[in-house]
Give the backbone structure.
Amino acid sequence: MRKLSWTWVIKLSSCLFLSACSPEHNWREIGFEGASLKAQLPCKPDRTTRSVPLGGVPVDLQVAGCESAGAMLAVMTAPLPSGADAQGILLGWQQATLRNAGVQVPLSADQQQIWTRRGFLPLTSSVHIQAKGQRADGQAVYVRAAWGAVAEGGHVRLVHAVVYDRHDPAELAANLWDGIHP
């Protein structure tokens, strides 16, 4: 009898241990090279850095992204050179993101709100959006995205965070936004 109960305890403990190691979302803080910006993602991110033109200016865009519970999440950041038009560049980035996601524009007032975060610059182009788009394969996709900017030394750093999912990822996006800070 004692042997059977210890076997049961070991099996139960193993099940509990394994379930604790595989949560649906495993949030962790990440940083970006050369930046004070921090973010939280619910999974171990893949990372890349590449030179891209933003507003006609080549910048080093750092991307950290992953898939969690079927949703794709990413946080992107790029430093702008001194004197670059952060407002205009954010607007262009928003349009490109929405176009690539197959979102019909213009957005209605209830689909777009000002995105304010402590430590972020108060730009009118700092917004978060919610919209339904279409993937390249024709499937519907829900998009929650945010754009903002922070002052960093003598330049401005742009920030973009996005969640794509088959269902509206409102809670996942809210947690992503809450985890971003300079």
Notes: The domain at 25-178 is CATH 3.40.1000 (Protein Transport Mog1p; Chain A). The beta strands are 28-31, 38-41, 46-54, 57-68, 71-80, 112-114, 127-134, 140-152, 155-165. The chain has one domain: 25-178. The longest helix spans residues 2-20.
